Amino acid sequence: MSSNYGITPQGENFSEWYNELVIKAELADHSAVRGCMVIKPHGYAIWELMQRALDDMFKETGHVNAYFPLLIPKSFFEKEADHVDGFAKECAVVTHHRLKANPDGYGLIPDPEAKLTEEYIIRPTSETIIWNTYKNWIQSYRDLPLLINQWANVMRWEMRTRMFLRTAEFLWQEGHTAHATYDEAETEALTILHECYGKFAEEWMAVPVVKGVKSEGEKFAGADHTYTIEAMTQDLRAIQAGTSHHLGQAFAKAFDVTFQSAEGKLEHVYATSWGVSTRLIGTLIMAHSDDRGLVCPPKLAPIQVVFVPMGRGEVWDQTLAKAKELAAALKARGVRVKVDERTKEGPGFKAKDWDLKGVCVRVDVGGRELEAGELGVARRDSEEKLTVAVDRVVDTCVRLLDEIQSNLFAKALAFREANTIRIDTWDDFVKQFEGEGGGGFVLAHWDGTQETEDKISEATKATIRCIPLEPLHPDDVVPGTCVFSGKPSKQRVVFAKAY
Amino acid sequence: MSSNYGITPQGENFSEWYNELVIKAELADHSAVRGCMVIKPHGYAIWELMQRALDDMFKETGHVNAYFPLLIPKSFFEKEADHVDGFAKECAVVTHHRLKANPDGYGLIPDPEAKLTEEYIIRPTSETIIWNTYKNWIQSYRDLPLLINQWANVMRWEMRTRMFLRTAEFLWQEGHTAHATYDEAETEALTILHECYGKFAEEWMAVPVVKGVKSEGEKFAGADHTYTIEAMTQDLRAIQAGTSHHLGQAFAKAFDVTFQSAEGKLEHVYATSWGVSTRLIGTLIMAHSDDRGLVCPPKLAPIQVVFVPMGRGEVWDQTLAKAKELAAALKARGVRVKVDERTKEGPGFKAKDWDLKGVCVRVDVGGRELEAGELGVARRDSEEKLTVAVDRVVDTCVRLLDEIQSNLFAKALAFREANTIRIDTWDDFVKQFEGEGGGGFVLAHWDGTQETEDKISEATKATIRCIPLEPLHPDDVVPGTCVFSGKPSKQRVVFAKAY
Predict the structure, then answer these.
(1) Domain residue limits, chain A
(2) B148 touches chain A (CB under 8 A)
(3) How many other C-beta atoms can be found within 10 angstroms of the C-beta atom of residue B382?
(4) DSSP string, B70-116
(5) CATH dotted code for A420-496
(6) Residue of A nearest to B39 (CA)
(7) To 5 degrees, how large is the angle CA A69–CA A74–CA A78?
């Protein structure tokens, strides 16, 4: 069954709702390449706004951009043992550098004479190629810190894919920094977590996140430890929206990157790496959108306000002229606006269309309303429709955009709080995660062992999303006993089913 | 022999000068991947400025961005015959999707069980995957035009590579548009040539370009015809800086992309594609830079003005404070500034360092000069050094940036004009291109045949760069006889040795 917006309602099947929304809101499309999507202009425009905001934050915190090769020599993956297990298995392998006409028939085949002596891997992440390069860039403590970010595509041959959330190829940024000391690298990893990722999620995406450290079982392959921001989706699952890794000296040792300290000693460099990806768009959708389609926080909305002129003939000329005038005035205030000049579609169709695409505010410019001096202004986040004096429309739109941004965050925060519970018995824990639903965030005590973590996950499909850096409630850090093993525990950690 | 800037002088060996400059100015570095470079932060910052300016131009002319998959199914290349010849031969071929531990010893091997049933090619350009997608997006004339651009990495397995100019992997933008009529596609291809590429080259890069159409032998594989902008390097060669292709209906036919016209007829779509790449950075270097290092037009300079405080102790404190104050005032005027706070390096080293990196204006903040109320202001483009009253420094810098931008263009234009000659005899033509030197732009008559073009190129290594859209001189379109065959010719065309 479809709602009249042409999308399966969330409550009926969240997964179908999501997949249909992505297509119908024209955010992305399937492609002919296994597990890869096409990011359509409307979806890419959100990514561009995300990139711009994040890039500004990276630069404000002292980082610069660079670009490293797409291909990684196979042997590089053999140098860091944990990393190879995590990344070099399911990947795209380049083995030839030429095609030739098939001597046995139609088409092209890889030319056997153009077989590479060493295969290349399409980067699943760039630590290895970057640390192999840093080796030449770092000699002395004066070359440190090195604070570099790259915007790039990466590829992981995922078996089960879902648009934006998990695709074989995705777009991301990956920061790779080098430091003289452990403490400096630790500060860097936390700066990114708090001042970039956490801030971006909450202030731009309007998505509240729990900031924490990953358990050993969930950390990045090759990291000393991994920080994460975890968001809640409307189907009560967790979504890892960004990670920041303190890599210790593992990559410096694997690629022999040393520096002469101020005291003249030769030491290995400390590293961090951190990334967010087009997965953020999936997170955005799952956090805010509804049965009418995309709900986009104003700061990341490609179109913030749309004007829909109405009527025919002379009336159309008048409403269109007024729409353009108001749009120009709003644009001058820095708002991203559009005037819907389509003449073949009616106002009802258009209202739904802009709802579906996640435009934050719609101004209906009707002929009679214009004559009466008041226009209808519809908020996308609520069902609210205001009647606003024509000369107040511009100010009202600007104010509404601020309100919508705050409202979406407040709503998402209230939703997360309502779906975060503290559980102390194994029976309750199991019950909470039963069935197909998500189960929300469960704060429970854990004995700190990988063994227990694995058993809990086997039994319930819930995993430890993170050990919060700041308790969500002061009582969360009162010692207790593990919900599974009964052994002592220092603090509650966040369990959830994850995307 | 090296100049005292550590770079082989241009006059001694242009090629070595270029390679050394790229490394020493920290624009790029070699990588462990055959034919691929690392774009270092200073080089990438230029690319970011280029991207921003071009992207704004694309959007002003009605285009939007999207993203299509990196990999292209092999069979897609088999669909357009000319295209396969041009692009599918030397390319990176993905044949496996997994590595596994080598059962016969150390390391990893492509898992034979993970061999792909159809190989993928890393995109050398995206016409095929994009037109395969457009097939689903275009049904009616109302879906047209489709004006899409993508920023992406592409890969061509080049045999001889040179940083920025020709690398196996490079960064670029590729526009792919779909139109209802031939004329509309033609207008699009020309809009990009004139309003984006030509304008960008001349107004941003300060590089004069000849705009023209390619001969059949030089056009894009699969195009109806190709427009180009051609720049001159300081070693008197041509460099193709950007191309815009009218693709006719070739890709629409290969991928069966039809639309219902307003009259209800089913027709094939007309296409254009157009691209510029990180090659523009190589063009920039070869057009303006000198034996002291990079010369960057202010509009594309990552650092436009650098302040170098001098002295020690209290004097240093004063000069540093003044440098910061002036830098802040300039920054508020929208200028990209830096204060050189390094204390271990002397002013002589610093002056050379900023010259090498292409900073447009250097302000020396000396203690004695500060006391006297006048500072030394050095222009990078000329050797000129001005003495400027402290309270005039900010205004002077702003004015100088404008002047340098204009001066670089004027200088490059004068250089091109001085090295553009009209030749009417085969003897003179051959002589002009003898030896290792470039030979400049030669305007000569040509009979219009591929045969003659090939013979001229074999004999002289000079190729037809383009048939100018506007004659460089009115006499260039007075009919004459081919410089090689003596057959009739309608107009002079541009011959040059090309990068």
Answers:
(1) 14-288, 298-416, 420-496
(2) yes
(3) 11
(4) SEEEHHHHTTSHHHHHHHSSEEEEEEEEEEEE-TTSSSEEE-GGGEE
(5) 3.30.110.30
(6) A67
(7) 120
Mean pLDDT of chain A: 96
B73 CB within 8 Å of a chain A CB: yes
- What interface predicted TM-score (ipTM) does this complex get? 0.96
pLDDT reported for residue B4: 65
Q: Is 3.30.930.10 the CATH number for A14-288?
A: yes
CATH number for A298-416 (one of 3.30.450.180, 3.30.420.340, 3.40.50.800, 3.40.190.10): it is 3.40.50.800
A59 touches chain B (CB under 8 A): no
Residue B92, pLDDT > 70, answer yes
- For residue B145, say if its preceding peptide bond is cis, omega within 30 degrees of 0: yes
Nearest by CB to B67, from A39, A67, A71: name it.
A39
Report residue A328 as tokens: 């120009």
**Nearest by CB: B41 against A69, A107, A148:** A148
DSSP string of B394-431, one letter each residue? HHHHHHHHHHHHHHHHHHHHHHHHHTEEE--SHHHHHH
Residue carrying the six token digits 């197909």? A436
Out of A31, A65, A96, name the one closest to residue B44 (CB).
A65
pLDDT bucket at A215, cuts 50 / 70 / 90: very high
* Rounded CA separation A130/A123 (Å): 11
What is the DSSP track for B138-159? -SBGGG--EEEEEEEEEE---S
Please check whether residue B64 touches A, CB under 8 A.
yes
Residues of chain B with Cβ-Cβ distance to A44 below 8 Å are 64-67
Q: pTM for this one?
A: 0.97
Q: Is the pLDDT of residue B432 over 80?
A: yes
- Do B14-288 and B420-496 come out as alike in CATH topology? no
Question: Which superfamily does B298-407 belong to?
Answer: Anticodon-binding domain (3.40.50.800)
In this predicted structure, the answer to whether residue A64 has a pLDDT above a threshold of 70 is: yes
- Give me the count of residues in chain B: 499
Question: Which of A44, A47, A63, A67 to substitute to test the interface with B, most B CBs within 10 Å?
Answer: A67
